[in-house]
Amino acid sequence: MQLVLEKRAERSNTIALVSPLIAIGLTIVTMTILFAILGKNPLLALQAYFIAPLTDGYSLQEIAVKATPLVMIAIGLSLCYLANAWNIGAEGQFLIGAVAGSWIAVKTQGTDAGAWVLPAMLVLAAAAGALYALIPAICKVKFGASEILTSLMLVYVADLLLDYLVRGPWRDPNGFNFPTTAEFDPVATVPLLIEGGRLHLGSIIALLVVAAAAILLGRTIKGFEIRVVGAAPRAARFGGFNANQLIILTFAVSGALAGLAGIIEVAGPVGHLQPGISPGYGFTAIIVAFLGRLNQIGILIAGLFLALTFIGGEQAQIAMKIPLDVTKVFQGILLFYVLACDSLILYRFKLVFPNRQVARGAG
Amino acid sequence: MELVEAIILSVLAASTPLLIAATGELVTERAGVLNLGVEGMMIVGAACGFGGAWLTGSIFIGALFGIVAGTLMSLIFALMALGLAVNQVATGLALTILGVGLSGLIGAGFVGERITPATHLHIPGLTDIPLVGRVLFGEDAFVYFSIALIIGVWWFLYRTRAGLILRACGDNHVSAHALGYPVLRIRTLAVMFGGACAGLAGAYLPLAYTPFFIPGMTAGRGWIALALVVFASWRPGRLVIGAYLFGAVTILQLHAQGWGVGIPSQFMSALPYLATVIVLVLLSRARTGGSTAPATLGTVFVPDR
């Protein structure tokens, strides 16, 4: 008796709908075992991870704040992945956006620059993120270099550039030698939505991005081309779609969104430029994109869910001394289960009995 | 002279983890599987390798721990990408994300601990020859093993029947299947070999390169190993050249920082990553005539029965 994979005649829509839920369920079961191995009470740990953050207003706002960059980056990545272009360097584009936008904030610091500062920062950050993403895209289209490897290498480069700037030319002279810029001026800060709260304008921008992506993919020719190039490259070639142009376009858009997310994070919740502004948003966003099945509403929900794991992880660390790395393990396991469950949309398991087949063949 | 010898020694040390990890990935990719999780398997290998050596006091057992950890990680990949026919790029990314988290969790217990690093060979007389003595006869076991490994892989791929079958699976899985070869089983073995090598390469870092473990100590070496396989056009001979070239870039930028060339250290540190991008572009460009990659690299194969 043997368990083998068999292609379904057509994709299963039922499984497509429930597969993220199965994946989350399996992940929680696995995490329960992991908590038990770590010697923590699994029920209390799960409560700290998934329930506690939902019970107070501050944490709820914090979830929305953390989900903001995740959703923005993941929407961009979903365009790339739909077009079968593998941008995995969103973390680098996020950092470059943060650096480029901060440049205006640092240069106008202490001057009487007006309300133009923040919009200019946002535009410059998006442009810088797009340009940075265009490097791997152009290397791919012009020279055939693997965009996976080049986009990832540029993450390390962006990280080092940021490190150099905050330790060198941009360091706050009154910052006791800490590697950080001075706090941004009010005109260079993303305004809060609720006075004294945490929620900021960036969350609204993220929602607009979700809506714009839904319109692009669902209602425009370009969106149709993106989907066809990814799903059926041969058909796209016969249709005369320019696949290279779409790689450039999707990389530029996802880079711009990652860059925008970067400056919003720096000019919003963080308030200044420093190393470690991202707990791996660019990589977690890859999980968000897949968990959301590359669909805009799905990504919004998945972004909120993964933000919950960030906040829950912090609370579990404080309350139960559970190491922060558990959150990364959780996210990795979740991505595995999501991918595995998605496989069942196209395939199904079948039991085969080799002996009986042989017997039938002989008879 | 002293300095030249010191530089050659440190280049060899910096190249060895790249060479071991890339050798494993080369075999995996020749079988037609693209495992992007090298970085994740390496970092788990580093944490487990250090843990094994720290607990037992034996570098050899540490290395074994690294190999086993890397192999187990690669089995997760095989189960997903081969067993469940999941997209290999996404699975490899997931493996790296999981590996980074797992290594932090495993390594948390012994951050700040130190071990006695792997001993270097010493043959009286031979090792004391100026300039070449220590380079040829004064390395640690990992360096010699890495060279034996790549020679062994070359011999296996090009001089044995099994190697020919493995390459056939990578170049045309449908034909290999039609000829009756168990494509998925062969690919699983190739993936496991890649995992074992990545685990060993990761273990090399805390066992021989620096005698302690720090989270994230692989610092992208797994990704550079992946780029090296492309650099080498999937050929073992060129892989050796590529690994030592990259080791040299890493060491030269370190020395340049020491000499105080006046360029900020971060720019020098970025050199290996930028060099990877430039090399990928130049090589891919030179190969416009036709790709040398295994023909079915990274594609899903579900045998029909």
UniProtKB/TrEMBL annotation, chain A:
Molecular function terms, GO-annotated: transmembrane transporter activity
Segments spanning the bilayer are 12-38, 63-82, 94-110, 116-135, 147-166, 199-217, 246-268, 280-308, 329-349
State the name under which the record lists this protein.
Answer: ABC transporter permease
Cite the InterPro entries for this sequence.
ABC_transp_permease
> Which Pfam families does its entry note?
BPD_transp_2
**Coiled-coil segments, which residues?**
none
Q: Where in the cell is it found?
A: Cell membrane
Which coarse location class describes where this protein primarily resides?
A: membrane
Q: Does the keyword Lipid metabolism apply?
A: no
Q: Please report the organism this UniProt entry assigns to the protein.
A: Bradyrhizobium rifense
Membrane topology term reads: Multi-pass membrane protein
The UniProt keyword set, sorted, is: Cell membrane, Membrane, Transmembrane, Transmembrane helix
GO CC, any one term: plasma membrane
UniProtKB/TrEMBL annotation, chain B:
Name of the protein: ABC transporter permease
Q: Which InterPro entries match?
A: ABC_transp_permease
Q: What keywords are assigned to this protein?
A: Cell membrane, Membrane, Transmembrane, Transmembrane helix
Principal place of residence: membrane
What is the protein's membrane topology class? Multi-pass membrane protein
Q: Where in the cell is it found?
A: Cell membrane
**Any stretches that span the bilayer, and where are they?**
6-26, 33-53, 59-82, 89-111, 141-158, 189-207, 213-232, 239-256, 262-283
* Pfam families (alphabetical): BPD_transp_2 (PF02653)
A single Gene Ontology CC term: plasma membrane
Instruction: Report the GO molecular function annotations.
Output: transmembrane transporter activity
